[in-house]
Design brief:
About 35% of the residues lie in helices and about 15% in strands. By secondary structure, it is of the alpha/beta class. It has one domain (about 55-245): Ethanolamine ammonia-lyase light chain (EutC) (Rossmann fold, 3-Layer(aba) Sandwich), CATH 3.40.50.11240. Strands 1-3-2-4-5-6 form a six-stranded mixed sheet, sandwiched between helices. Strand 2 (about 115-120), helix 6 (about 125-145) and strand 3 form a beta-alpha-beta unit. Helix 6 (about 125-145) packs across helix 8 (about 220-240). The radius of gyration is 22 Å and the shape is globular.
């Protein structure tokens, strides 16, 4: 036998089967004749059902408000101008506006807050039920440590992303954070989105918002997402702007502020 060292074996390029362990996307499902294997077909049907359920399940606003109260957060319930879920899907413009009673309620809550947090069902009440309260509570704790004044949390039924604009404007908030259920895909029906805007006012373009996406157990962890929210808020309050005009020179997730008791 030769004593000469052998060349180490180099790993080959990753295959589609290797990717299956890195993503929930549908790759390397296999085939059975001209169709999918039975397991893959059944999984597709289950995920499609979960996506439909996420879209059509009504938001339990009372339960969200109760959970926020347990976390020590004052909360109020409002509605958009939409009357039912079918109309919500047909008229996204009405999901961006408040109904008159909700507008009057917000007018009585005071003015001049640094941050307003809005929880809206969007297109996945499932995502809101699982992720919104932990995210709101963690963000509220960071806001308090930063010395920011916080408006009562607003739970908005049948709301779109831009419903945060009239809510923030009526509260006189410098920044609004909208936590909303994202459009479900066939691999994630529980994904929460976050949209942060400086100077909310009705009619703002989407280019004025900064988005954090895929907040869920198998995506971006809540605490990591809240760290990014805090970083955005700090930059917005310092620069007086948001969206494409915002300069991000700060860390993505700043270290937690020291406890006031230390």
């Amino acid at each position: 036998m030769s004593d000469e060292p052998t060349e180490p074996t180099r790993p080959g390029p990753p295959t589609l089967h290797d990717l299956r362990g890195l993503t929930q996307a549908r790759v390397a499902l296999g085939a059975h004749g001209a169709g999918l294997p039975t397991g893959a077909a059944l999984a597709f049907g289950l995920d499609h059902a979960r996506a439909r359920e996420a879209v059509w399940t009504p938001l339990d606003a009372a339960a969200i408000r109760e959970a926020l109260t347990v976390q020590g957060l004052e909360a109020v319930e409002v509605r958009s101008a939409v009357t039912d879920r079918a109309e919500y899907l047909r008229r996204p413009d009405w999901g961006r506006a408040l109904d008159p009673e909700s507008a009057a309620l917000l007018d009585g809550l005071g003015q001049g807050f640094d941050v307003a947090i809005v929880i809206a069902d969007g297109l996945s009440a499932t995502a809101v039920a699982l992720n919104a309260v932990p995210a709101a509570a963690a963000l509220a704790a960071r806001a308090r440590r930063a010395g920011w004044s916080l408006a009562p949390v607003v739970v908005a039924s049948q709301g779109r992303v831009a419903i945060g604009d009239p809510i923030g404007a009526r509260l006189g908030a410098r920044c609004v954070v909208v936590l909303i259920g994202e459009r479900p895909g066939l691999s994630a029906s529980d994904s929460l989105g976050c949209y942060v805007t400086f100077g909310p006012a009705p009619g703002l373009p989407d280019s004025r918002r900064n988005c954090i996406s895929n907040i869920r157990q198998d995506g971006l962890a809540v605490e990591a997402a809240v760290g990014q929210m805090e970083a955005l808020l700090r930059a917005m309050l310092a620069q007086g702007t948001s969206g494409v005009a915002l300069r991000r020179e700060d860390p993505v997730d700043p270290p937690p502020l020291p406890d006031a008791r230390d």
